[in-house]
Amino acid sequence: MSLFFACEQSKTEKIEEVQNQDTVSYHHEAFYTDSVHVDGSDADEIWSKATWYPMDQVWLGSPMDSGDFKGRFKLAWNNNQLFLLAEIEDDTVIDVHADKLVQWWDDDCLEIFVDEDNSDENHQFNHTAFAYHVALSNDVVDLGPDSLPHFYNDHVTTVRKTSGKKTTWECAIKIFDKSFVDGGKNMPRKLSANEVVGFMLAYCDNDHSETRENFIGSIPIEGEEKDQGWIKSSVFGDLILRK
Ligand SMILES: [Ca+2]
Ligand SMILES: [Ca+2]
Ligand SMILES: [Ca+2]
Ligand SMILES: [Ca+2]
């Protein structure tokens, strides 16, 4: 999510540029577990077995100094949800904008990108995919079809534990398809083994500024413009659900 709202013309040009770029594919695996206790602790058995994946792609901002940010995560699933354990080391954990629906991407937050059918579409103002911004307050924000931000707190259950510079986020993510209607009655869909879900993870790092200083993701994105995930799901990686 970026500061494109100020200029309609540049926003349109940006979207077209993003849509025309080639993309890469990148694979993660999640292994089955009956359940995860979402409490911010990694004590669940699945977390001792799951693979760490790095968040090491600096999509926005200057090259980062040692100590500014380090991030990694693990994934698991059951028939009802994806589970995420993210471990972030950030020198300053800060919430600059008190209003949760104003520049929510410019506060320290985790950004979870999910496309349930890996359909590689423009999802900016629709629900063919989601870009869940998980704030330090655990509020979950994405754009709706009305082009406005909405809370999707019931999609992502999350517990954050911060101790000094280290933050652990444990999340359970329900999976909704494009039939999701804001304000309507919606049922998350079931997951099954061997399906491929579009997924990537990122962190918006603000330490002392009006806007975030860096945006760091888990997937390499080709081309000059790296901030594409909030617009198009074709840059997401492939997440394979293993049993
Ligand atoms: Ca746990
Ligand atoms: Ca930082
Ligand atoms: Ca989709
Ligand atoms: Ca920070």
Notes on the protein architecture:
By secondary structure, the protein is mostly beta strands. The protein has a single domain, classed as Sandwich (Immunoglobulin-like), CATH 2.60.40.1190. The chain contains two helices and 14 strands; from the N terminus they run H-E-H-E-E-E-E-E-E-E-E-E-E-E-E-E. Strands 1, 2, 3, 4, 5, 6, 7, 8, 9, 10, 11, 12, 13 and 14 form a 14-stranded mixed β-sheet that branches. It is globular and about 40 Å long. The N terminus is likely disordered.
Shape: globular
| Ligand catalogue | calcium ion
Order of helices and strands: HEHEEEEEEEEEEEEE
Low-confidence stretches: 1-24
Return Rg in Å: 17 Å
End-to-end distance, in Å?
A: 34 Å
Round the mean pLDDT to the nearest integer and report it: 90
State the CATH architecture: Sandwich
Q: Helicity, in percent?
A: under 10%
Structural class: mainly beta
Give the strand tally: 14
| Main beta-sheet strand count, sense and barrel state | 14 strands, mixed
Count of structural domains: 1
Quote the CATH topology. Answer: Immunoglobulin-like
Report the total helices. Answer: 2
State the name of the first-level CATH class: Mainly Beta
The share of residues in extended strands comes to 35-45%
